Amino acid sequence: MPKVFISDLVLRDAHQSLLATRMRLEDMLPICPKLDAIGFWSLECWGGATFDSCVRFLKEDPWERLHELRKALPNTRLQMLLRGQNLLGYRHYSDDVVRAFVKKTAEHGMDVFRIFDAINDIRNLRVSVEATKEAGKHAQGAICYTISPVHDIKGFVEMARGLASMGCDSIVVKDMAGLLTPYVAADLFKALKDAVDLPLHLHSHATAGLAEMCHLKAIENGCEHIDTTISSMAGGTSHSPTESMVAALRGTKYDTGLDLEAIQQIGMYFYEVRKKYHQYESAYTGVDTRVQVNQVPGGMISNLANQLREQNALDRMSEVLAEIPAVRKDLGYPPLVTPTSQIVGTQAVFNVLTGKRYQTVTNEVKLYLHGRYGKAPGMVDPELRRQVTGDEGLIECRPADLLKPELDKLRDEINLLAESEEDVLTFAMFPEVARQYLSQRKDGTLVPERLEPSRKQDGEASAAPTEFNVVLHGESYHVKVTGAGHKGKAERHFYLTVDGVPEELVVETLDLMVLEDSSKATVRQGPSGARPKPSKEGDVTTSMPGTVVDVLVKAGDTVVVGQAVLVTEAMKMETEIQAPIAGTVASLYVQKGDSVSPNEVLIEIEG
User: Fold this and answer.
1) For residue range 125-172, what is the model confidence (pLDDT) as tens digits?
2) Is the pLDDT of residue 510 over 70?
3) Number of CB atoms found within 10 A of residue 75's CB
4) Mean of the per-residue pLDDT values of the chain
5) pLDDT of res. 439
6) Of all helices (H) and strands (E), which one includes residue 42?
7) What does the H/E/C string look like for 325-388?
8) Reduced to 3 states, what is the DSSP secondary structure of residue 143?
9) What digits encode the pLDDT tens for the residues 32-78?
10) Tell me, what DSSP letter sits at residue 90?
11) CA distance 151 to 162
């Protein structure tokens, strides 16, 4: 058997898992010459959540990041993670957008496209794979590994055969939650090796402390490629240490041939870099075997904790963790990976906090139950489907077959801000976030989140970040200011965290503080700008803190019970807020882009 090849994940999945995807390009480029000299099979450096993080938080152009990394790593394959028809966003895109995105990414120097679908519906991989092959690049088909009554080795083998028939150049088992165990890994890779004549890769997170053993058993049964990360960015919800696996295989027939001492020097570099991002450190940096019971990835737990903390309901985490498997069963056992992890997790939070299961259903759950994400792995609860979709038929075809070409429309929508085709594609991924980013770029006001100074040792004084506690409606919140936009403009942006959750505050000059909706109907505010507390049957509220994505009514409109009047976003999932009574819209207290919380009136309806 040939030697084992290593793909290192330090430039993407490692800091996505441990540091909320916050590592900046300026901390990657200095070490690139040493990374490039090691001889890794590939370096994963793009895709996943990095694109979103660049635009939303770091105020970096993700395309420029890829361009710079390509220049800095001339001798190493660059690898990315692509969500199939979802690309790097959270919805299905039309085929013309998928093809344009893959083509442009290849032009910027990407070599290996690791392509997966959240529910393992390989129909959703076809166009991405075709586009990758057309660009002359390596298409790697991913099997999202999970455990459920409808998932078994036989099913994974059939999926592998389908990926091979589609034209994939290699196959990876993507164990995104760290659910794989060593002897199952042995059986799975033996079966895959017997079934397909393609190189096999293993990607397994270290959450449960089993990843190194899984790697070894997979290698012994035909796996030729493993994913690891530099030791100072390994462990916890990240991955196995590169140095450890190099040492473990050294002198055997599986020897990687990599220079252990050279890799150790890189480890010391990232040991220091990691300190710079201490404010984003995951709480799950050690072994956490709970994933073997509740099947919830550590990163997903962190998101849930933030959401519950906003609600002052962190003490209900155990209820949410118990509800997640129930929601997953109702939805036909989707694997818990982006975006299905957010879909299942957010719905579980709604079910627990509202006190009634599926009283509020996110738009993404509605789309999932319609079949807009593809075919569910198992049987969806028929009563839930009837409750949510009514008489609408289930989509049986590939969901993207129903989407019209949209690239030209996207170009028209953003033409005043876009300076390139790359800008249009950025807008396609995250319209509102990209519009803000491109506007700030045009105005010269791009400001990344402020990094808190590291605490100095031996009693030395350190610069303290601006932080304080505020009390609102009897609740206490811890606020840290992490950055601010330029002075002297009509609007000034402040970047802060509230109980650890990133937020943005826009402060306007006094003559601009009359808020208006798109129809110029005044949006009212309560005393000191606060929204009133709900007290009447017609008061529209939200059960989750989030952001207003759209206001669907204006003052004076007549509405019926159950009519959608607002769309909000929480945990990257959208929810329609419905009218509680029939009547007339009397007052609006929100507009698009506003942050909202429970226990405040968003719209008043008079019956």
Assistant:
1) 999 999 999 999 999 999 999 999 999 999 999 999 999 999 999 999
2) no
3) 11
4) 89
5) 96
6) strand 42-47
7) HHHHHHCCCCCCCCCHHHHHHHHHHHHHHHCCCCCCCCHHHHHHHHCCCCCCCCCCCHHHHHHH
8) strand
9) 999 999 999 999 999 999 999 999 999 999 999 999 999 999 999 99
10) S
11) 16
Question: Which residues make Cβ contacts (< 8 Å) with residue 587, sequence separation at least 6?
Answer: 524, 555, 603, 604
Residue with tokens 């309806």: 605
Indicate the helix (H) or strand (E) that contains 67: helix 62-72
pLDDT at position 390, please?
A: 86
Extract the tokens encoding 204: 């397994």
Do residues 113 and 82 make contact, with C-beta atoms less than 8 angstroms apart? Answer: yes
Residue 519 identity: S
Amino acid identity of residue 350, one-letter, is: F
From residue 245, give the alpha-carbon distance in Å to each of 8, 189, 190, 307.
Answer: 11, 18, 21, 36
In DSSP notation, 295-318 reads: ---HHHHHHHHHHHHHTT-GGGHH
Rg over CA atoms, the chain = 24
The residue assigned the tokens 């790359």 is: 422
| Sole residue written with tokens 């997979």 | 218
**Cβ–Cβ < 8 Å for 166, 198:** no
- pLDDT in the model for residue 597: 81
Reply yes or no on whether the pLDDT at 9 is more than 70: yes
Q: Token pair 């019209």 is at which residue? A: 404
What pLDDT was estimated at residue 186?
A: 98
Tokens 């698009």 belong to residue: 592
Q: Which residues of 245-258 are buried (b: 16+ CB within 10 A; e: fewer)?
A: bbebbeeeebebeb
- How much is the pLDDT for 459? 46
Sequence-distant (6+) residues with CB within 8 A of 430 are 52, 55, 56, 89
Percent of the chain with pLDDT over 70: 88
Residue where the block lists tokens 């690898």: 79
C-beta atoms surrounding 438 within 10 Å:
21
Residue 91 amino acid letter: R
- The residues, any chain, with a CB within 8 Å of residue 596's CB and separated by 6 or more, are 542, 545, 546, 547, 548, 568, 590, 602
Tell me what pLDDT residue 174 has: 97
The larger pLDDT score, comparing residue 114 to residue 477, is at: 114
Alpha carbons 545 and 548: distance in angstroms, whole number: 10
Largest CA distance in the chain: 79
Band of pLDDT at residue 545, cut at 50, 70 and 90: confident
The CA distance from 3 to 8, in Å, is 16
Chain position carrying tokens 């050690």: 286
pLDDT digits (tens, 9 = 90+) for 312-325: 788 898 899 899 99
- On the question of a cis peptide bond just before residue 339, with omega within 30 degrees of 0, the verdict is yes
Measured distance CA(17)–CA(10) in Å, rounded: 10
- The values of phi and psi at residue 606, to 5°, are -105, 130
Helix, strand, or coil here: 272?
Answer: helix
Residue 403, both tokens: 């989407």
Q: Which residues contact 441 (CB under 8 A, 6 or more apart)?
A: none
